[in-house]
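Action item from last week, closing it out:
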Amino acid sequence: MLTFVIGSAHLLSADDRADSELAVTIQIHDYSNVSSGSLTRARAVVTAMYERIGVRTEWMGVVQQRVGHQGPARRDEISRIPIAQVTLIILTAKMAARGHISEGALGFAAVPDEGMGRIAYAIYDRVRVTAARAAMNEDDLLGFVMAHEIAHLMLPRGSHAETGLMRGRWDVRDFQRTDVLTLGFSPDQASEIRSTLLHKRPTLAAQTEAVGQREQ
């Protein structure tokens, strides 16, 4: 199996960030009953990855969706949550199966022909199983999947890379020997993300981009 080099983006100085920092607003809809502690850790992973390219993540609460019940239950006692630029939906394995999502996919994103996508997904049960098999922290893996899929919404279609955060195909051995917390965006990816946040509005999507495991 080939090894690979972890990609990283040019880091902005504190002064550069003060002058040019951009933000993306994100709301989570959770169907998998992920614990508050796990979501807090996963969000921190996403925040750190985007901070390194001068993009601030603004988290607009968690909507706790109850499968089989009427209406959502909201966490953090937020009674009214504004619409975010990006919605991150955490699915159960059954929901993914009903949607005919490839068994190896840990997450996917709906990517439009033009503009910025709006909806990304993570499949929590698959993340947990993969993390256990790789003997890694499942919250870190969830954060990696979230960061990867959110990025697809701000990158052109077909934006998977051979290395780094946007690498698309993994197996358990890859995760065993990779600290996902060190993964980053390439300079070109960072530039594209920032350009999208500056110039493009969120649009409804047409196709999907997924991150997942190779068939073994």
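Closing note: Residues 1-19 have pLDDT under 50 and may be disordered.
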